[in-house]
Each structure stands twice: as structure tokens, then as C-alpha cells.
Design goal:
By secondary structure, the protein is α/β, with parallel strands linked by helices. Helices cover about 35% and strands about 15% of the residues. A three-stranded parallel β-sheet has the order 3-10-9. The longest helix is centred in the C-terminal third of the chain and has 21 residues, at about 215-235.
Amino acid sequence: MTSAYTLGSHSFESRLIVGSGKYDSFQTQLEATEASGADMITVALRRVDLSVGKSENVLGYVPEGVTILPNTAGCFNVEDAVSTAQLGRELLDHGLVKLEVIGDERTLFPDVAATLEAARILVEDGFEVLPYITDDPVACQQLAAMGCAAVMPLAAPIGSGLGIRNPANLRIILETVEVPVIVDAGVGTASDAALAMELGVTALLMNTAIAGAKEPVAMARAMRLAVEAGRLAYQSGRIPRRLYATASSPLDGLASF
């Protein structure tokens, strides 16, 4: 019941995508990534020192077989985001990219207009674009219509751990776009992850919730299990909510006294 899904020309088994920032060491990052079961990890290229060997930067601590998703994190305009994405394609030899164009340094909310423009340029250049965007259904519809491989609405501000603030918007997005929907940012703990998956999203991307935990490796495993449980619950179909109790055992045929 937890079948693979595709993002552009790429296929993935795990519906948990992890980040590579904020860990106390590269070794902890490696162990947490392994525990998460993720088969894709984001790397913020603008924060990678490419002048040193792999053993001295994040690229040397990615488990074998895990796809590196270049991320334009730290970009505040269209030009920087596009050039960073182009660097990622040159370095990693694939066109899958997580697009971020930040509009506000304090909240790290995306610049919607700039994200739309950068996405248009990158799609036309053959990239398979995964844009980080607000939970605005119209913006998500526009990104999907222009050919993005997925849309990645935030659940809450990056690193906030607030969980899903607006499930209604996520439901609208799920109903109105035909590309995968990946919740990105705001998840704080395993129950947040399960809830997002129960809504029917394709996958989750998280970093701080794992890297910032007291025990990152254990939290990575918790998130893996929560994502799997949430997906199974979504596929299984929950019972409807009712105001009053419903007997769990049938009343017909009960003995009379």
C-alpha cells in the first residue's frame, strides 16, 4: 500500500525527504538520514564549500543510493535562484531542483511572484522544478500549470515546528492540482507528519524537526514510522466523525431477559 511515486523522471520509494542542514556533525547527519529511510536529501548549494574534498563537506555524508536534491536556499532574487539551480545541474548531472526564492528574511516566507518567475525560467530550461511556496492554492495551481514536477506548500514557517496551520488550504491544493503535493516546512514532531500524510499529500520534506531534536537519529526513525502510518491511514480510509456514540457491536439478535 506504500507504493512508489514519481517526481518528473525520478521515482522514489520513501515519502519522507530530509534536509542536510543544522546537524551538530556530518556523522549525525549521515546516521539520521539512514534512520529516516529517505531516498532523497536536500543540499543547499550556496552553503557547500566546493573547494574542499567530499570528506570535509556535506556531500561526503550522504548514504549510498540517496538522491541529492539541490536547493536554492539562501536566494532572495530570481537571478541568484536560477544560477544556483544551474550550478546544481552541472554538479549533480540531473535537473531535479528544489526552488526557493525567499521574500522575507525574518519569516523566510517565499517571494511568490519571484518564485513563479524563476520556476518559469527553469521549466523552460528543462529543469524538473519542486518549488517551495506558500499554502496559496492559486499560486500552486499556477506552478502546476506551468509544468513544475510538484508543488511544495509550507505547513508553517521554516524551522518553527508549529505543525500544519491551515489544513483547509492543503485540502484545496490537493483537490485542484494534478502534480504531487509535498508539504515543506513547519513539521515539529511525528504527529504533525502523520496528520499531513493523512490529508493525502504525496510526501513530506523536513530538516529542523529531525536535526534540531535532542536525539536526531531517534527522531528520524520516528518520522519514518509516522509518514508510513499516515500514508497507510489515508489509503485505508478513516471512519466518519460523529457527534454521538455508535455501538461497536450490533444490537440485532441480542438475547431478551
